[in-house]
Amino acid sequence: MNAMRIPDRRLVNVAGFVTCAGLMSYALYAQYVLYLEPCPLCVFQRLAVIALGAVFLIAAVHDPGGWGRRVYALLAGMAGAGGVIVAGRHVWLQHLPPDRVPSCGPGFGYLMENFPLTEALTKIFSGSGECAEIDWQFLGLSMPGWVLIWVSALGAAGIWNNLRR
After folding, report:
1. How many angstroms separate the CA atoms of 90 and 124, rounded?
2. Which of the 8 DSSP states describes residue 115?
3. Which of 28, 52, 65, 136 is the least buried, fewest Cβ under 10 Å from its Cβ?
4. Whole-number Å distance between alpha carbons of 135 and 80
């Protein structure tokens, strides 16, 4: 009887990159075809997915041994954790009672152009009314809910894959 063989590290890293590319492709489709404009928190979730994809791609191309694998595991974990924090905050905002939702604020571009970085980031992460709106759902979960699941799974896969022997 043949035991199931785990794919090699490089192949799993390629699969992680392709998954991130697919997620970003759908995000762009939702923006430019479905006309769902991303709120500031959505932009940071996209950055987390892009960072995860970049880690997977570089790890696949480099295919390091020894300490290099640990570095890629750490980077995947950090990108995944960043995505979990932002998506988790977004999901939390979407589940606030209507009277607790912050008022709508200026868009991402305006904040980044007109405020110092730390102040802009503080305003972005405090969220706004537009971040609490649910414009899209699949199987009962909003887009940030799905991002939370995907970045959790991909971050964990990046850690596991690059630490395994």
Report:
1. 11
2. S
3. 65
4. 24
